Amino acid sequence: MNAVFPGSFDPITSGHMDVLTRAAKMFGQVTVTVMHNARKQGRHLFTLDERLAILREATAHLPNVSVDSFGGLLVDYMAQQQEGIIIRGLRAVSDYEYELQIAHLNRQIGEVETVFIMAATRWSFVSSSMVREIASYGGDISEMVPRASAAALRRKHADVYAEREAEQRARTEG
């Protein structure tokens, strides 16, 4: 049985990777699908192509995981790909209510099932938006994201990281 793990992945986090790695053990093939909405262009830190590249690098070690993108309704993508299972990660009870509504809607309009996988407790506080914020100040996000995401965030915020590292050198030398 195959499954789809949809999201914006701006960027993929260690929590996403935890859910994805576990899903890859449960399903024959898992497609990580970057869902993009033309009306939301410019709201992401990374372009669609950058997110796809980060995902491909981050998932290269998982032989039964592929990466794709789609702009439209997830149920339409599921029908086109002839897939029937949606994977959704949950960090906390607060995620459940929203995800439950979406799961019911997807089943109603697309006859697809959703499987929820709880992220490991150590990742329950990590979100892409929080990681982006920490990185925008040059903070250490290396444990919160896979290496591909960390490298991409450092490139996006190279000036901030360079400034922070210069300040740290000055403190240790002075």
From TrEMBL:
SUPFAM superfamilies: Nucleotidylyl transferase. It is an enzyme of class 2 (transferase). ATP binds at S8, F9, H16, G89, L90, R91, E99, W123, S124, F125, V126, S127, S128, S129. The record marks H16 as: Transition state stabilizer. Its EC number is 2.7.7.3. It holds the Pfam family CTP_transf_like. This is Phosphopantetheine adenylyltransferase. It comes from Deinococcus arcticus. The lineage of its organism: Bacteria, Thermotogati, Deinococcota, Deinococci, Deinococcales.
